[in-house]
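We were asked to recover a plausible sequence for a given structure. The inputs and outputs are reproduced exactly as logged, with field labels preserved.

PROBLEM: sequence recovery
POSITIONS: 348
GIVEN STRUCTURE:
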C-alpha cells in the first residue's frame, strides 16, 4: 500500500495580513493534486478582507473549502489550534499543515503517492508523521549527510535549546538512523508536517498561551513522546514563497543569527517582540518539559543569561535596553507569564 492515496488528505492553512498573492499560488498548486485532497481548511487570522469572497473569486472547483475567521490575530497558537480542532471533526485520515506562503510541488505528491507505506512502518512502527524538507528555510545544511539524529535526551535540561552538556557530545543524545537517507526529528514546525488523525486523538491541545512561536515545538514534542516518529525525506519538499524573519537577518556568508543575538544587536526597539516571544516561550518549554536535574538546568540558565552580555551585547544604550528585555523574557518564561504581549511595551 502507498503512503498517500486518493481523498486521504486534509490541508490546513493559516493566513495572516494580506497574503492573497501567496495564497493564490499555494491553492493553485494544491488544485493540481485535488484527487488526494478531501478538503482544505483555511483559518483567516485577523486579516482585513473577506476570505470567503476571495476563495470564491479563485473559482477552484476541484477543492472543497472550509473557512474559519478569527476576528483578530490569535497568533500561530490560536490559528493552528482552532484549525486542528476543526480537522479532528471534519478531516480526512491525514492532515497536511501549511503556512500561507508555502506550496507543495507536484514532485512531492508523486513521491508520497509512490512511497511504500508498509516498508516505512516496518522500520519505524505504525505511528509516523512526515515533516517536509524546506531547502530554502532549513538551517541544518548537512541534515541528509549524517548517520545519526538527536533524540529526546539531547534536550534534557536545556534552556531554549542551550545546554553546557552539549559540549560533551554524549552518545546517549543520538540515535543511529536505521535508514541513512531518512532523517528523524524529535521536534518539527507546523508548516509542512503530515500527521495522522488517529495519532493525535490523545495529544494535548495547542497551548494558546504561547500565542506565537514555540507552540508547534510543544505540540510535536507531545507527538514524539506519544510514540510518533517524525521523518524527513529529501524528495518530499515544500517551497517557501517568502523569506522568513530569520532569513532576512543573516550574517555575511549566510549563517543565521540566533534569536538572542538578533535581540541584543538591534537598534530598533520595535524589532524586539519576535525574539521576546521566542525566548520567553522557549524557556517556558524547557522548564516545563525538559527539566530533569535542578543543578544542571539552573547552571544552564545562569550561563544562558550571562553569556550574551559578554558575547553579543553592544555596550551601548540600546544594547543595555535590549539586555533588560532579554532578561525580562527569560523571567517571564520561568514564571509562566505567557499570552499575547502588549506591543506598546516595545515602543521605547
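RECOVERED SEQUENCE:
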Amino acid at each position: 500500500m502507498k503512503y498517500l492515496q486518493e481523498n486521504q488528505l486534509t490541508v490546513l492553512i493559516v493566513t495572516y495580513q494580506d497574503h492573497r498573492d501567496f495564497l493564490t499560488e499555494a491553492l493553485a498548486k494544491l488544485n493540481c493534486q485535488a484527487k488526494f485532497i478531501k478538503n482544505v481548511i483555511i483559518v483567516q487570522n485577523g486579516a482585513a478582507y473577506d476570505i470567503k469572497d476571495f476563495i470564491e473569486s479563485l473559482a477552484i472547483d476541484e477543492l472543497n473549502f472550509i473557512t474559519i475567521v478569527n476576528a483578530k490575530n490569535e497568533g500561530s497558537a490560536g490559528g493552528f489550534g482552532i484549525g486542528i480542532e476543526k480537522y479532528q471533526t471534519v478531516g480526512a485520515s491525514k492532515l497536511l499543515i501549511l503556512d500561507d506562503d508555502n506550496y507543495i510541488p507536484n514532485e512531492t505528491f508523486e513521491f508520497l503517492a509512490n512511497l511504500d507505506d508498509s516498508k516505512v512502518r516496518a522500520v519505524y512502527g505504525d505511528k509516523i508523521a512526515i515533516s517536509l524538507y524546506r531547502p530554502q528555510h532549513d538551517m541544518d545544511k548537512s541534515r541528509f549527510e549524517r548517520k545519526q539524529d538527536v533524540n529526546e535526551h539531547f534536550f534534557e535540561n536545556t534552556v531554549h535549546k542551550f545546554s553546557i552538556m552539549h559540549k560533551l557530545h554524549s552518545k546517549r543524545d543520538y540515535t543511529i538512523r536505521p535508514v541513512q537517507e531518512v532523517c528523524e526529528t524529535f521536534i518539527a514546525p507546523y508548516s509542512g508536517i503530515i500527521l495522522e488523525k488517529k495519532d493525535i486523538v490523545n495529544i494535548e491541545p495547542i497551548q494558546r498561551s504561547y500565542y506565537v512561536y514555540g507552540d508547534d515545538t510543544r505540540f510535536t514534542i507531545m507527538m514524539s513522546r506519544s510514540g510518533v516518529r517524525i521523518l524527513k525525506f529529501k524528495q518530499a519538499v515544500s517551497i517557501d514563497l517568502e523569506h522568513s524573519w530569520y532569513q532576512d537577518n543573516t550574517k555575511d556568508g549566510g549563517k543565521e543569527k540566533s534569536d538572542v543575538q538578533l535581540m541584543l544587536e538591534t537598534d530598533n526597539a520595535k524589532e524586539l517582540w519576535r525574539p521576546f516571544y521566542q525566548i520567553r516561550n522557549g524557556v517556558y518549554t524547557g522548564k516545563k518539559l525538559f527539566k530533569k536535574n535542578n543543578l544542571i538546568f539552573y547552571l544552564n540558565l545562569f550561563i544562558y543569561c550571562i553569556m550574551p552580555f559578554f558575547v553579543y551585547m553592544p555596550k551601548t544604550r540600546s544594547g543595555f535596553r535590549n539586555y533588560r528585555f532579554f532578561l525580562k523574557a527569560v523571567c517571564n518564561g520561568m514564571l509562566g507569564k505567557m499570552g499575547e504581549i502588549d506591543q506598546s511595551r516595545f515602543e521605547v
